[in-house]
Each structure stands twice: as C-alpha cells, then as structure tokens.
Amino acid sequence: MVGAINALATTTGTPQPSASKLARGYRFVRDKWAATGLTPQDAAFVAPQRVRECPVQLECEVVAELELLRDLPDLRGALVVLEARVLRVHVVDALRLPGHANRIDPDRWRPLIMSFQQLYGLAPGRVAESMLGRVDEEKYRLVTRSRVVKLDGDDDKEIVEQEFKVKS
Question: Which of the chain's termini has less CB crowding within 10 Å, N or C?
Fold first, then answer.
C-alpha cells in the first residue's frame, strides 16, 4: 500500500488549497482513485467506497467531534479529533486466525504504521520512505501556532537548537 499512500500523501480534494497546504507541497487532485490505481468497492453501511486492495477495511460512522486549540481564537477548530464507531470490518481470509471467523492472526498481519511522518511495519527499520517525510516538520508547527495568543514554548525553536548543539 506504500505506493498508494505516497501517491495521496500531499494531495487534497480542495480545488484551492490553503496557503499552509501549498507551503507544504500539497496539490489538488480531483480523482484520487485514478491517482493511486486502486479499485473502489461498495461499502455495506457507509457512503464512501472501500479500497479493494486494502487487506483490512473498516466501515465507520462519526459519533463525536472534539475541536482542538479551543483556547486560541484564531485557530479553534483548525484541528479536530473524531471518535468513530466501527460498523463493519472486512478482512481478507489470509489474515484470519485458522478456525475463527472473527479473529486476526497476529503472525500473518503486518500493518503499516506512520510514525513521525515515516512508514514502519512490525519489523525493525523503516519499510519505505514516506512522501510526507519530505515536508519540513517545522511547517506543521505554523498550523498550530496562534497569531493572537502566545503560549510558553512558541518561541522555543532557537532554544532547543542551542541545547542540542551543546549536547552534541
């Protein structure tokens, strides 16, 4: 799935991406199915289609939203945490625990995990380079830094860099 993930990593469905997305290298893509070469598959309970090539698929509904950055008036709601309820799980048979219809065999499943913008699996070391890993992480700080309210740590970049140089 790495190829498909990287094909979508810096894309948006918004025709006019925000300045912050443009600064991070995002581009508008109308047809994400075509961009990835993946195959859409109907879902049972939700409108969005599933990805046929994905070995584990969850159909979910949003049951709660929590706006982050609520104490920063100019950023309130810029980031949102969603709580989802799983309605149906689809799993390829090769990942099922033998003799169990509703259990995954942990010795067969190797999920892909993003950690600090890089892609990892359950084995040591990076699985592959992530397109998101090419985006300077400092550009994400600007998304969560208020222009109205100054917080402790907002101006810590130079301090942290200096401390790192002293220890190195």
Answer: C
